[in-house]
Design a protein that fits this description.
alpha/beta; FAD/NAD(P)-binding domain; Enolase-like, domain 1; five-stranded parallel β-sheet; 26 strands
Length: 416
Amino acid sequence: MTVQHEPMVIVGAGLAGAKGAEALRQEGFEGRIILIGQEPERPYERPDLSKDYLMGASEKEKIYVHPEPWYADHGVELRLSTRVTGIDTQNRLVNLARTEPVRYDKLLIATGASARLLPVPGADPHREYYLRRVEDSQQLRFILQSAHQVVVVGGGWIGLEVAAAARAAGAAVTVLEREELPLLRVLGREMAQVFADLHRDHGVGLRCGVQIAEVTGQGRKVTGVRLVDGTWIEADVVVAGVGTTPNTDLAADAGLAVDDGIIVDEHLRTSDPHIFAAGDVANAHHPLLGRHLRVGHWANALHQPAVAAKSMLGIDAAYGRLPYFFTDQYDVGMEYYGHAGPGDYDEVVVRGNVDKREFLAFWLRNGVTLAGMNVNIWDVTEQIHALVASKKPVDPVKLADPGAPLSGVYADGPTG
């Protein structure tokens, strides 16, 4: 491939940024690649930060995307601890805080997302813990070993995984969730109840439908959380998992289209033809789902950069992978394909034993499978993916029957 005079520049040295650099080389690009990251750590993956690494079950080296020599071996200029102050789209420059600007031929923005801070009196990042970076996980991993009373604010994936880790460390745990059930907006009432029961069965004090009024403490030492109804819950550790906010400031300041992330098409191209975005920060048009969707999960950061790299090189490519996420909590492992938001579906079909937490669940609308989840049942992900991708009506009775092959549950008979 022809060497470009100007380099390909990637802002954001996380999983998406590192995979973008890798994909450019795999596609035969021989020119300069500059990968810029604000953190001092080389690119790493985040899932283990709230799972095995947090629980002390894996070593730090396992979280990194590439071995340390990979970047030099592949001619990738990795600039860590480097803050980008702005993007000059007219002159195609990335401005840096302490060094000269770098010029780009094409630019990939992979700035990810940041943990949302608690918006209540007494909340202070020096008091409560947030889990987004490797240093956050290291600090929390250490403090959980001596924690007695842990309060987790937020019953999303991060909050529940931290609760499981804290219980494994022997701490008493209370989870505070403002919705009626944890994960309600993600899984809906039927499956959210499964995870609520899971945590209660493991001794977690799960309090739903509550709001916090303040974080109490003395200096930097936290003492507890007070609810709006006046109830005070004692804690020596408070962890906040109340969602994330996409890091769009650079894009917005540069005049790119932004709405719950950086707006990109199915080629991951922004409103500027020379700039692309991938990972947690990208609100991408999904050709299969027919809508824009920002998915803040590992799979997008892993797979989107390959499409972005091709698009940067003028190769026709579109990102049409189904959304995917997974979790491990206690003795339960789960994988989920598709997208079924609040109000999207009209039926949930279960196959298997919910009480034993060994089952499949499917979200349907007008008989069409929008999403599927496997809980402690493996080697079915390809079949679930096929059901969702087919967009064909299924027979709910066959779908619920463990004896019926998933390839034979379609309303008009088997496929494939």
